[in-house]
Amino acid sequence: MSEKIFSTAKVITRHPANPILSAKDIPYDASLIFNAAVTRYQNRYVMLFRNDYGATEADFLASGKKGVPFAGTNIGFAESNDGINWQVHEKPVWQIHDEEIERVYDPRMTVIDGKVYVCFAMDTRHGLRGGVAVTEDFDKFEILSLSVPDNRNMVLFPEKINDRFIRLERPMPVYSRHGAAEQFDLWLSASPDMRYWGDSKLVLGAEKVPFADAKIGPAAPPVKTPHGYLTTFHAVKYAPNDLYSWHLNWRKIYYAGLMLLDLDDPSKVTAIYDEPLIAPETVYEKEGFRGDVIFPGGMILEDSGEVKIYYGAADTVECLATADVNDLLNLCRKI
Q: Residue 164 gets which letter from DSSP?
């Protein structure tokens, strides 16, 4: 039986300016610009982007594609009047590296009560931790909470639900999943104060997604609509053969998925689209540091009904796709 080929939903339009941000646009050392957080804040669009720097494709090719360590990772900041054309600040705004912490990366932003809350991943000598920080000026980031290893891909809902902050997350169990490699699922936790998290619930199991045979997890922070929280997720499927990458043995395809979560109990999936919302199809999505990767990190619902979906492509560049909110809602099949 031949492998099913998945395609992007017809309601999705890739922006003609893609990629909207790449290493060539950055005024400091930059190699990979991807997995950005994007939101509206103080009457402008703002972006926090991941930058892995210090190595190029040529470096990997020269090494026989065995792997060249990047010099480091930082988080850059950009602003825009239209969400398409970006002005990048002259220096990175956030980087941590000490005896215990190796780096912070993959930011996700949600504005609540006039403050920007930033979810992020943190690599440490003792495991990968997920965290929540807060900023009002993109100069200082106060870390409010850090998980124990291993948990990541955290995103916050845009408001309290039943007087609690809610986040989606992807813990990474190994032993308790009975040896299933990377069979990780999408979970939810709640907090009274952004610092202490618990009351965790399973939202969506990886086995429920027909275009995944490995891990799934959160993508962009959810958007509230009258019909529920419109929510993207990432889903991974193994490829039978090597895909384009700067390094060896890359065989994972990352898709963007779409579901609708209940307004009063967001641990309940009320509707889901049973095919990918965005599948890697263009050159900039299929060729890069890791080819065939789509990973949404920001979603904005405009007053016009247009939804802007910002996504990392091939773990190399940042891109934009748009759709009408009603078309997205109509994609989701009630369950």
A: B
Cα–Cα distance measured from residue 108 to residue 187, given in angstroms and rounded to the nearest whole number? 16
pLDDT tens-digit series, residues 297-332 = 999 999 999 999 999 999 999 999 999 999 999 999
Q: What is the DSSP letter of 175?
A: G
Q: What is the 3-state secondary structure (H, E, C) of 63-121?
A: CCCCCCCCCEEEEEEEEECCCCCCEECCCCCECCCCCCEEEEEEEEEEEECCEEEEEEE
Torsion of CA 289, 129, 208, 34, to 10 degrees: -30
Rounded distance between C-alpha atoms, residue 94 and residue 23, angstroms: 17
Two tokens, residue 102: 């190796």
The 10 Å CB-count burial string (b at 16+, else e) for 1-21 is eeeeebebbebbebbeebbbb
Question: What is the H or E stretch that residue 285 is in?
Answer: helix 283-286
In b/e form, how buried is each residue of 107-140, taking b as 16+ CB within 10 angstroms? bbbbbeeeebbbbbbbbbeeeebbbbbebeebee
Q: Which of 69, 37, 27, 38 is closest to 52 using CA atoms?
A: 69
Q: Measured between alpha carbons, how far is 205 from 183 in angstroms, rounded to an integer?
A: 9
Residue-wise pLDDT tens digits, 70-110: 999 999 999 999 999 999 999 999 999 999 999 999 999 99
Question: Which token pair is 140?
Answer: 């200082």
